[in-house]
């Protein structure tokens, strides 16, 4: 009986790990190919073990394409992502507090609108937005990628925070009012400190999504010196011949490093965030 | 209840200021808090939506001012644009093939991890990794190489004695490669399923065991019915996501070969930002919205028959 159970446990872990290996194989393959000598990427394509570590791919890739190095491209992405995080944190916490706690006319209608925009494909606003930003002279600047975040551009974050704030007992607010606390005081001193977990979730998703964003950059950025990582990789792909797959894969690997780090450190919040609200 | 009463019920009255002013002040504070979103909603959502509806009836090209052409764009789309029809076909095929497989995988794996065994938390994390990085260009680049003529997949196939080819350059297989890519990213629905599975009370299964139900029977009679709200939610979210796929196709296949991966979003982008046919692209955007609305509407309608909410039991 005991051996049977042990065998079952072994079989379980074996199956899961085997399947997990297939799941992660593409990622492992990319990492290993990024240090393979160029010819090997094609000749021993399936192998996960490079015959020798060829770090030149990283050196070569870091130089980027044309006159734009990948250091510049990483800085651009980091800037856009940081601004997206700040924008998301500020706008979603204020707006969520408003919807979750305050009273004003049309509140339910407006909240229904917010929920409605959750499912709205961005193609529907894309073209007029482009025309508008073009009119503002924002094309070829980071503004179109940043400003929407400050005006609640990702309604998911607001929704997430509203749900969270609704779970905080109202007695806390009432006690604060009796103590003479203003509305802003309730928001800042009572609600926000309790919102830390959801603020972390918002931060992580704001980072992951803006880091991944390719489409926004594709439309609004023409000047290679403004390129974000997605655009940098895509134009690298266009401008390189088969011989520079090594540097391309090296930079692709590097571009995933920040996401992995964030994921590893904050997976608890990330998984909770998805489990409770179903984002992404 | 009048607004003034609700406020009095919540906060103790302050006799120094008049009741009316207090009500107004509260409204103002409320609007002040939601104002960032309100500005964004009016300026970047409602305004553009009205504009895009207007453009869809014009021949706007960004250079000259728009001329009203009535339903011309819509009529051309359905009667005189074979690529539009291709893009609809490709997208619908993609949505209706990838979504069910992805969800089936997500559920299967979630059930595998829904236990108290050591390491299931770690495994969940491991299997979620592809979804974290899924939308990035790096993954599309990687996929393109893996399924290319000299890619790793062919090496593996050769080991089993199968002659490979460039899968992403093959008109008959390119779409399949992209379907595989999105199925591979089943992490988010998996986690949502897992959360749903954990809420199913253990004693239901125990009672079923007493009645002599086998594993499969329990799955069909307990797990699936209790999970229908989660299945429904995942179905809606994944389906809408599949309708809008862009980056992966743009980087791996660019719509080719022979337009076999010309996703709707890709074709719309091409019309708008390569040809600057903003009027036509707007009409395409509205058509997309209507198609998504119809499909979601049908799902909601059908959900009355198969989605089972516990609160309705009693």
Automatic annotation (TrEMBL), chain A:
Domain ABC transmembrane type-1 as annotated: residue spans: 74-266
Subcellular localization: Cell membrane
Single GO cellular component term: plasma membrane
UniProt xrefs under InterPro entries: MetI-like, MetI-like_sf
Transmembrane intervals: 12-31, 78-97, 109-133, 145-165, 186-211, 245-266
Main location (coarse class): membrane
PANTHER family named among the record's database cross-references: ABC TRANSPORTER PERMEASE PROTEIN MG189-RELATED-RELATED, ABC TRANSPORTER PERMEASE PROTEIN YESQ-RELATED
Name under which the protein is recorded: ABC transporter permease
From TrEMBL, chain B:
Membrane topology according to the record: Multi-pass membrane protein
Ranges of residues in domain ABC transmembrane type-1: 88-299
Coiled-coil region(s): none
Annotated GO CC locations: plasma membrane
Protein's UniProt keywords contain Repeat: no
UniProt key word Cytoplasm: no
Principal cellular location given in the protein's record: membrane
Cellular compartments annotated: Cell membrane
A UniProt-annotated Pfam family: BPD_transp_1
Keywords of the record: Cell membrane, Membrane, Transmembrane, Transmembrane helix, Transport
One annotated GO biological process: transmembrane transport
Sequence intervals crossing the membrane: 27-55, 88-113, 125-143, 174-197, 226-251, 278-301
CDD domains named in the record: TM_PBP2
UniProt cross-references to PANTHER family, sorted A to Z: ABC TRANSPORTER PERMEASE PROTEIN, ABC TRANSPORTER PERMEASE PROTEIN YESP-RELATED
Family statement drawn from the similarity comment of this UniProt entry: Belongs to the binding-protein-dependent transport system permease family.
Protein name listed in UniProt: ABC transporter permease
Organism: Shouchella clausii
């Amino acid at each position: 009986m005991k051996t049977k159970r042990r065998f079952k446990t072994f079989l379980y872990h074996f199956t899961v790990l085997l399947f997990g290996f297939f799941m992660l194989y593409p990622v492992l393959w990319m990492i290993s190919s990024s240090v393979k000598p160029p010819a090997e990427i094609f000749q021993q394509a399936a192998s996960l073990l490079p015959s020798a570590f060829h770090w030149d791919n990283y050196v070569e890739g870091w130089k980027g394409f044309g006159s734009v190095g990948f250091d510049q491209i990483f800085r651009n992405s980091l800037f856009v992502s940081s601004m997206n995080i700040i924008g998301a944190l500020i706008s979603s916490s204020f707006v969520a507090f408003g919807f979750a706690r305050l009273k004003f006319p049309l509140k339910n209608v407006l909240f229904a609108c917010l929920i409605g925009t959750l499912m709205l494909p961005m193609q529907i606003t894309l073209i007029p937005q482009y025309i508008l930003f073009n009119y503002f002279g924002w094309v070829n600047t980071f503004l179109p990628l940043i400003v929407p975040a400050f005006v609640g551009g990702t309604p998911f974050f607001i929704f997430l925070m509203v749900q969270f704030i609704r779970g905080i007992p109202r007695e806390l607010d009432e006690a604060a009012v009796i103590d003479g606390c203003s509305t802003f005081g309730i928001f800042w001193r009572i609600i926000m400190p309790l919102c830390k977990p959801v603020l972390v979730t918002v931060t992580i998703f704001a980072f992951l999504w803006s880091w991944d964003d390719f489409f926004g950059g594709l439309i609004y950025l023409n000047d290679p010196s403004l390129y974000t990582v997605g655009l940098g990789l895509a134009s690298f792909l266009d401008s390189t011949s088969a011989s520079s797959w090594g540097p391309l894969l090296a930079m692709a690997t590097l571009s995933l490093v920040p996401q992995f780090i964030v994921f590893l450190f904050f997976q608890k919040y990330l998984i909770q965030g998805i489990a409770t609200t179903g984002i992404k | 209840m009048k607004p003034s009463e609700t406020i009095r019920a919540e906060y103790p009255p302050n006799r120094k200021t008049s009741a009316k002013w207090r009500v107004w002040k509260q409204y103002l504070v409320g609007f002040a808090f939601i104002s960032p979103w309100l500005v964004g909603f009016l300026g970047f959502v409602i305004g553009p939506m009205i504009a895009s509806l207007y453009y869809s009836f014009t021949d706007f090209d960004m250079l000259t001012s728009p001329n009203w052409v009535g339903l011309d764009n819509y009529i051309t789309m359905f009667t005189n644009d074979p690529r539009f029809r291709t893009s609809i076909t490709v997208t619908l095929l993609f949505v209706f093939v990838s979504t069910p497989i992805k969800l089936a995988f997500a559920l299967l794996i979630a059930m595998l991890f829904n236990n108290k065994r050591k390491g299931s938390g770690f495994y969940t994390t491991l299997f979620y990794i592809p979804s974290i990085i899924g939308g990035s260009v790096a993954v599309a680049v990687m996929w393109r190489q893996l399924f290319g003529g000299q890619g790793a997949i062919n090496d593996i196939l050769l080991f089993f004695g199968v002659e490979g080819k460039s899968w992403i350059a093959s008109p008959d297989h390119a779409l399949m490669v992209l379907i595989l890519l999105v199925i591979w990213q089943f992490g988010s629905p998996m986690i949502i399923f897992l959360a749903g599975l954990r809420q199913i009370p253990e004693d239901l299964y125990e009672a079923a065991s007493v009645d002599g139900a086998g594993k499969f029977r329990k799955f069909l009679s307990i797990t699936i019915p209790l999970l229908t709200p989660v299945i429904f939610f995942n179905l809606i979210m994944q389906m809408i996501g599949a309708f809008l796929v862009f980056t992966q196709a743009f980087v791996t296949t660019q719509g080719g070969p022979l337009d076999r991966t010309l996703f709707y979003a890709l074709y719309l982008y091409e019309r708008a930002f390569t040809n600057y046919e903003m009027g036509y692209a707007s009409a395409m955007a509205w058509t997309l919205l209507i198609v998504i609305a119809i499909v979601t509407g049908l799902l909601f309608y059908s959900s009355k028959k198969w989605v089972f909410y516990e609160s309705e039991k009693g």
